[in-house]
Amino acid sequence: MDAVITGLSAGFAVAFQPFNLSLVLIGCFAGTLIGALPGIGPINGVAILLPIAYGLGLPPESALILLAGIYYGAEYGGRISSILLNVPGDAGAVMTTLDGNPLAKRGEAGRALSLSAVASFFGGTFAVVLMSLSGPALASYAVTFSPSDYVALMVFAFASLASLVGSNSVKTLLAAVMGLMLASIGIDANTGVARYTFGIPDILAGIDFLVVVIGLFGMAELIHLVEQQVTGKLKPLALDKSFVSMKDLAFTKWTILRGSVIGFFIGILPGTGASVASAVAYGTEKRVAPNSENFGKGDIRGLAAPESANNAAAGGAMVPMLTLGIPGSGTTAILLGALLLFNVTPGPLMFEQRPEIAWGLIASMYIGNVALLVINLPLVGLFARLLTIPQQYLTPLIAVLAFIGVYSVVSNPHDLYMITLLGVFGWILRKLDFSLAPVILGFVLGGLFEDNLRRALSISGGDWSILVHSGNAIMLYVLAVVVVVVPIWLGRRKKKAAEA
């Protein structure tokens, strides 16, 4: 504990230097704006600004503080388009659309935005505190996860989808299977065989996540708005002046705590990320919360759970990167590259050899979380006023953001046709009462599931029993069975009680 206090004291001395403090604020504000753009997300934001940070000749600690500010600022900003436009800013914000957008549509966008800011603040701060106190020990446990353990984790995540969203679990699982099918498109990395490409060279490398999320959410929402406008069912949204209350915070306090714990511990597992954390947190909350039938219709607990989880996961992903030199997510992989670019080798020795970088970064995250709350809460009213834009202007705005967001990252005209096609597909699924979130989660988790399954079977020489060798895997399989069987059992018990 004395070492932690000494390290944090030195870290705050670095972070509170006027130049570094200004970089924290600039990074947080820029990250919020980047995250608010549909589909850009933290990974693209950090990747785009990394050459600028290096080109400016900043010291290593200052450059990392700036890039980390952009990272968790973008995690905050991703909620804005998710809540207001029903278009996730990144994979971790997919679950935010489920209850955040219904809240906005019933005139409570300010309440949703401010609650998500507070939940994100708590989740991010919770993660930094745990990182400071027990980061190395947790990272050492995380790296004991084998490929077969990750397969079990993916099975648990898919089991959580069974009653995650929507009233029809069969449609939910079908939507997840559609996501898995989309994830399998492209050249198989092991055999070199082209899968489901239909002779189209532009999809030999697979379909980019950005294309899928913008197509299924952004373009589908655009087509839905046009349909309502044509049929005369489009209603103007009320001017929103709502704000989170102390009653809301008291009601969601345990939800935020559970989401933060789940997000942090999933975040420290290399390769999982905020998308898995937010999905598991939402599914867990829906099961443990009383009167959960309102989830998906604008329940503030369904908003607070994923928002606290994805920011806690962002902090958790920093733990293996700093303590072991193993990136916990795509964004931390870029931050790891930034460290190596400055000839800094991350790992346990970095806390002894370069404490100004390790502890300065951790201290800047404390400051950054407070700064994001201070920056974002006053802007809630401004963001909420976006919904007062007449729908005939909002529709082309969504289209412009979607096309610019995709083309600026992938730079391939073919993907513009792809998002249009996926938009029509997403609109049809909405008409058939399918939820789109399981499609995205199936797409995201599909690649992780396949890669780790292949690794596990390669290690064992094709012996499938390796999937149940470790205690971690068995525990996760048991949890997967529990989350599927217990709701069915409780439902039947409740039905029998009602009949009696």
Structural class: mainly alpha
User: How many β-strand runs?
Assistant: 2
Give the distance, in angstroms, between the N- and C-terminal Cα atoms.
58 Å
Order of helices and strands: HHHHHHHHEEHHHHHHHHHHH
Describe the sheet with the most strands. 2 strands, antiparallel
Can you walk me through this structure?
It is a single chain. The protein is mostly helical and 500 residues long. The protein has one domain (2-499). It is built from 19 helices and two strands. The protein has helices spanning 2-15, 18-36, 41-55, 60-85, 96-105, 109-142, 147-161, 169-183, 209-231, 246-267, 274-288, 300-324, 330-341, 350-353, 355-384, 391-410, 413-431, 437-460, 471-499, and strands at residues 186-187, 194-195. It has a two-stranded antiparallel sheet with strand order 1-2. α1 (2-15) packs across α15.
Describe the protein's topology:
Layout: H1 2-15, H2 18-36, H3 41-55, H4 60-85, H5 96-105, H6 109-142, H7 147-161, H8 169-183, E1 186-187, E2 194-195, H9 209-231, H10 246-267, H11 274-288, H12 300-324, H13 330-341, H14 350-353, H15 355-384, H16 391-410, H17 413-431, H18 437-460, H19 471-499
Antiparallel strand pairs: 1-2
Helix pairs in contact: 1-15, 2-4, 2-15, 3-4, 3-13, 4-5, 4-6, 4-12, 4-13, 4-15, 5-6, 5-12, 6-10, 6-12, 6-15, 7-18, 7-19, 8-18, 9-16, 9-17, 10-11, 10-12, 11-12, 12-13, 16-17
